[in-house]
Amino acid sequence: MFVSSMARRPALAAGLLIGLSAIGQATSIHEQGVLKLARREFPSGDSLPLAGEKFSRNSRLTLSLVGVGGRIVLSEVQVDAAGAFRAALLVPATVAPGAYRLVAVADDGDEVASLEVTVSAAAAAEHASMSGHEGMEMDEPSSEPLALERARSPLVTWSVVAGIGLAVVAGAVLLRRPASGGR
User: What's the CATH number where 74 sits?
Assistant: First the structure.
């Protein structure tokens, strides 16, 4: 019934289609951008390079971390005439470790890009918070081999050798056994 009444009124149908297409265009004002990070896991207090592309030209974006605790605004960036930007992203040392989304938000509040990231605890904060370890120093990396204690029991060694031997013999027997059935 609705279609037949629309067919009788071509001007109304054309107006409806134009209105729907205008609504569709109004909702896609922003281009969906792409955020690029060198790594997706980093400690709080770290600064890392961030690049963006395919954004609306000459626009301004707010970069934030969104997690369970809410939204943490990190910085604002200016997109160039090509729709790209480069920035050094500083993650405050006060950001709690966990999973976050790094989001780019346009001036009108629309989210135009996002990226899943993981923030780990800051290295200095980890060592400072370990009670009872205040006077301890960490060893520096060296080319010296690590001295690791190993089990040197002959019983353990011969048990492993016997197990490997039994597995080899059982495998050979299974491979040489003729198939039953036809011949």
Answer: 2.60.40.1930
From edge to edge, which strands make up the β-sheet containing 85-90?
Answer: 34-37, 47-53, 85-90
Query: Is residue 119 in some structural domain?
Result: yes
Instruction: Specify the number of domains making up the chain.
Output: 1
Strand partners, 108: none
- Per the structure, the complete domain to which residue 108 belongs is given by 34-128
The model's pTM is 0.53
Residues 24-70 pLDDT 10s: 444 446 668 899 998 899 898 888 899 999 999 999 999 999 988 88
Q: How far apart, in whole angstroms, are the C-alpha atoms of residue 138 and residue 130?
A: 13
Q: For residue 57, give the amino acid letter.
A: R
Q: How far apart (Å, rounded) are the C-alpha atoms in residues 140 and 133? A: 17
Q: Which two tokens stand for residue 172?
A: 């050979």
